[in-house]
Amino acid sequence: MVRRLLDKKLRRDLRRHFGSMLAIAVVVTCGIAAFVGMRSMVHVLGDAQLAYYERSRFPDVFARVRRAPDAIVPALRDIVGVERLETRAGGEVVVRVPGLREPATARLVGIHDETPGSLNRVVLRRGRLPAADEADAVTVSQGFADANGLVLGDTLGAVIGGRWRHLRVVGVGISAEFVYELRPGDMLPDSKRYGVLWLPDAEAEQAFDLEQAWNELALTLEPGADTAAVVAALDDALQRYGSFGATTRRLHPSHQFLSSEIDENRTFASVLPTIFLGVAAFLVHLVLSRVVIPQRDQIGTLKAFGLPTAALVRHYTLFALVPVMVGSVAGVGLGIWLAAFLSEMYQEFFRFPSLTAPLYPAVIAAGVGIGVVAAVVGALGALRRVLRLPPAEAMRPEQPALYASGIVETVLGRHGSPIARMIARGVTHRPWRTALSALGIGFGAAVVVVGTFGFDAIGRMKHVMFDIAARADVTVVFAAPQGPAVVADLLALPGVLRVEPHREAAVRAWHGHRKRQTALVGVDSSARMRQVSDLAARIPTIHPGGVTLSASLSRVLAAGVGDTVDLEFLDGRRRRIAQPVVGVVEDLTGSSVYVPAAAMAALVGGGEAVTSADLQIDPRQEAALYARLVAAPQVQSVTARVRMRESFDATIRESFYMVLTTMLLIAGALSAGTIYNAGRVTLSERARDLASLRVLGFTRGEVSRILFGEIGLLGAFGLPLGIAIGIGMAWATVQSLGRDEMFRLPLVIGPRTIGLGLAVPVLAGLFSLWPLRHRLDRLDLVESLKTRE
After folding, report:
1. Closest CA to 456 of 190, 734, 269
2. How far apart are alpha carbons 121 and 177 in whole angstroms?
3. Tens of pLDDT, residues 40-76
4. Where do transmembrane segments lie in this chain (predicted)?
């Protein structure tokens, strides 16, 4: 009987506070949707990665050499811990793609007939793999085929083995070692201009002059094998063959990018839902406080008649759980949609056989559980004070609050209007609640800042990449070091106005027991088309007399200015030199060792050499230049800056704008929910005061100014605080990504991000104030002025 009456009261309270319940449900929806969507993606990507690696037999260890004979393979297979070892020929070539103005770069990968246990299996999406005796047949990577509209039977042109070849497309496939197809030196994938071509290994051997030899190795390890020992044994065995050093799967570029993305999702899946569900708990507490305090006499009466405290706790907990459960249902549905959307987006970057977002009951249960706990914590916090009162005390009206003039009110009392003084008194009367309300509004701004600062950071990265670090119209990379005469050869090509040569060398950097394979880069301070730049878009000085390390490499090696690092050249000579560290630069991508270009010949040896060249060209002769470059056998890749910039813009536009829209929507919902509930609580608590003012002659507009003035003051406190919190969260995000060796994200908070951080909560607040004004205009003056005693 009592429970039925309490349930009837519950339904009545829910109808009366429908607007507040709806606001809580919206905030909970956003929090659970963010949790379910992002946390599901962590599982989706992780599960897809493991399944794909297992299906395609993704190796554990990789090694590259300049040229090694087939005769040493049996000895390599005898290394303790090696389960299966395979070799092949592979490398980059320039290809002509039908319909593509500039040359593309393709990675040729030799394949053998598959046997049980074969490594790096190709997953076919269309067609077939080339047969061993098909000289001009290739299987093309799916991203490259889709971006260029290639179909079975199309032909590509390339110089392979010193002669022009037409390669017929017989299949389209994907592979676990190219989940993220990225041309060496690029930051984002450009599927239109970079892809993978699988062809018979014998053809690949001819292409790279490797008859009865190979230049790439991959192996899997036996269970419990000592990975470090196997890597060391490989390095020793391959030393004489120009080894670039063996590496584990952890340092494989595609694996690194994918793992970094999973870690990033895991971080955001923890931060954003915490904010939303924390705000939801606060809103539940706020609304229940408004419901419970006026009902303290009813609670006292029920307790006096013997109603157990547990029944009251159940009643008000159900009141808190209703909006949470509504928000949970909507949030789970929205989270599932978000996971499906993100899966489609990631499939454009990561080529998995299948990337669907199944339901993860544990994730859904955890999301709903967190929401329920947040609601219960908020509800019990509001109930605790009333339930601790003895029944007789609870049945008495609440003691009127003590008002005393604070600093703000004193100042306004001298210079402000009566309305301003009432606003100040209302805000300063309950400082803790004012602070929490302002914090809730501020979190809306914080979510916008942390969700959109990436666009400012990417803008800085774009400026550094295309306006400072790489300003050449065209960059040519050679398959092998060329002599200085290549500069004159390039100048003789049609349309070439200026040539700037560069030299890099593969090295292994050592500091104590720490080591990392990297590149020794010669930097010409007088170069116009390429410079090293730090995250702040400044050009640091590369000092002579030592080496300058990338900051990421400095962290990996634990080496700083004043330390000495060893450089082991990976060109077969295993020459090792010691160099002092004279500088550390916080550059944008990769981990490099920089020295002045003039010092390269002395450090590397072998005289002057050129490994790549930047070209300034006449755009009117671009086509003729490309025709000559694509037919040059010594050219490994050609990159056009304009096309790279277009690809960069397209990638950002396709992926990040949807993320921006989502972040703005959930931030707006967060702000609107907080502001609406803050206004409803204020209106409820001050209804008697506002009604009295109306009776005394104040107009509706003047009364509205009191209510909305308090909310505006909360926003004035909360928005700057929220911007500061957002900047702090952005800093934490940058620090988290700063550990990534692939790229660094600069911390840039531009006026646009600050403006959005302020505008979104303000617009959301204006939207939520409309129903408050409507309710205020319909205020029942007689009912409000009745005494509760």
Report:
1. 734
2. 9
3. 888 888 888 888 998 888 999 999 888 899 999 999 9
4. 21-42, 268-288, 318-339, 359-383, 435-455, 656-678, 711-734, 754-772
What the block records as the tokens of 44 is: 């989706």
Q: Are 711 and 679 in contact (CB under 8 A)?
A: yes
444, 762 contact by CB (below 8 A): no
Closest CA to 401 of 427, 421, 430, 435: 430
- The residues near 190 (Cβ < 8 Å, ≥ 6 apart) are 183, 643, 644, 647
Instruction: Name the one residue in this structure whose structure tokens are 């004979």.
Output: 69
Q: Cβ(384)–Cβ(317) under 8 Å? A: no
The angle formed by the CA atoms of residues 449, 451 and 454, to the nearest 5 degrees, is: 90
- The token pair at 198 is 């699988």
Q: Can you read off the two tokens belonging to residue 66?
A: 């300049």
CB neighbours of 126 closer than 8 A, spacing ≥ 6? Answer: 152, 171, 172
Place of tokens 């928005």: 719
- Report phi then psi at 569, rounded to 5: -80, 130
b/e per residue 605-621 (b: at least 16 CB within 10 A): eeeebbbbbbbbbeeee
Three-state secondary-structure class, residue 432:
helix
Asked whether the beta carbons of 81 and 226 are under 8 A apart, the reply is yes
320-366 confidence digits (pLDDT tens): 888 888 888 998 898 888 888 888 877 777 778 877 777 788 888 88
The CA distance from 711 to 717, in Å, is 10
The 8-class DSSP code of residue 72 comes to: G
Surface-to-core class of residue 558, CB atoms within 10 Å of its CB (0-12 exposed, 13-18 middle, 19+ buried): exposed
Q: Which amino acid is at 641?
A: R
Answer for the pair 694, 700: CB distance below 8 angstroms, yes or no.
yes
Give φ, ψ of 663 to 5 degrees: -65, -40
**CB burial readout 753-769, b (16+ within 10 A) else e:** bbebbbebbbebbeebb
Does the structure show a pLDDT above 70 at 367? Answer: yes
- Per the CB < 8 A criterion, the answer to whether 489 and 656 are in contact is no
Total H helices, total E strands in the chain: 23, 21
Which amino acid, 36?
V
* Digit-coded pLDDT (tens) for 621-638: 988 999 888 888 888 888
Tokens of 423: 């606003």
What number of residues does the chain have? 789
Extract the tokens encoding 438.
Answer: 């302002």
End-to-end CA distance of the chain: 28
Determine the 3-state secondary structure of 520 from DSSP: strand
Q: What are the helix (H) ranges across 350-430? A: 361-387, 391-395, 407-415, 418-429
Distance CA 374, CA 280 (A): 7
Query: Please, are residues 535 and 600 in contact by the beta-carbon 8 Å criterion?
Result: no
Q: Given a cut of 60, is residue 297 above it in pLDDT?
A: yes
- In angstroms, the CA 765 to CA 772 distance is 11
Say yes or no to pLDDT of 153 above 60: yes
| The two structure tokens encoding residue 294 | 């006026």
